[in-house]
Amino acid sequence: MQIFKLVGNHLYVPDFEYLNGELLYTSATEGVKNPKVKAYVDSILQFAMKDIGEGANFLAKLSQDLDRYQTIEAGILQEFTPTTAQLPLDAGLRLVCECCDKLEAQVSWIDIENPLAALDIDERF
């Protein structure tokens, strides 16, 4: 079972292994663009819309607009080079140095005796 399904008085749901495994990864990386994720989300919305309450109209509109939504991770992954690509050594070392400089700057403003006092002084945070 990969979707919610109401049969009479019984609600069938996917098992935890499927939800926590394949569906979790796919939903985080692809979102509702993936047919399995879309079917799962649609099945939940259909189940929730069985109630003819005030929220049914909202859920119906959400269901219609579902294809427009994309996960944050999917958006980020589209902007970056695939993980199989190689970064030149000099570029990698430059990134490490920049990150070390940022960390050093962040740590340097911390008052060892009273670290929260720095928040009152430093308006950057």
What does this structure look like?
The protein has 125 residues and is mainly α. The chain folds into 2 domains: 1-84, no CATH class; 86-125, no CATH class. Helix content is 58%, strand content 5%. It has a two-stranded antiparallel sheet. A hairpin with a 2-residue loop joins strand 1 (5-7) and strand 2. Helix 2 (35-48) runs antiparallel to helix 3 (55-65). It is elongated and about 65 Å long. The protein starts with a strand and ends with a helix.
How large, in whole angstroms, is the Cα Rg?
23 Å
What order do the SSEs take from the amino end to the carboxyl end, as H and E?
A: EEHHHHHH
Tell me, what's the shape? Answer: elongated
- Based on secondary structure, the structural category is mainly alpha
Major β-sheet strand ordering: 1-2
- Our estimate of the beta-strand percent is under 5%
Question: How helical, in percent, are the residues?
Answer: 55-70%
Our count of domains comes out at 2
> Low-confidence stretches at least 5 residues in length (pLDDT < 50)?
none
Distance between the termini: 48 Å
DSSP strand tally = 2
Largest sheet: 2 strands, antiparallel
Layout of SSEs?
Blueprint (H helix, E strand, L loop, with lengths): L4 E3 L2 E3 L3 H14 L5 H14 L6 H11 L6 H8 L9 H20 L8 H5 L4
Antiparallel strand pairs: 1-2
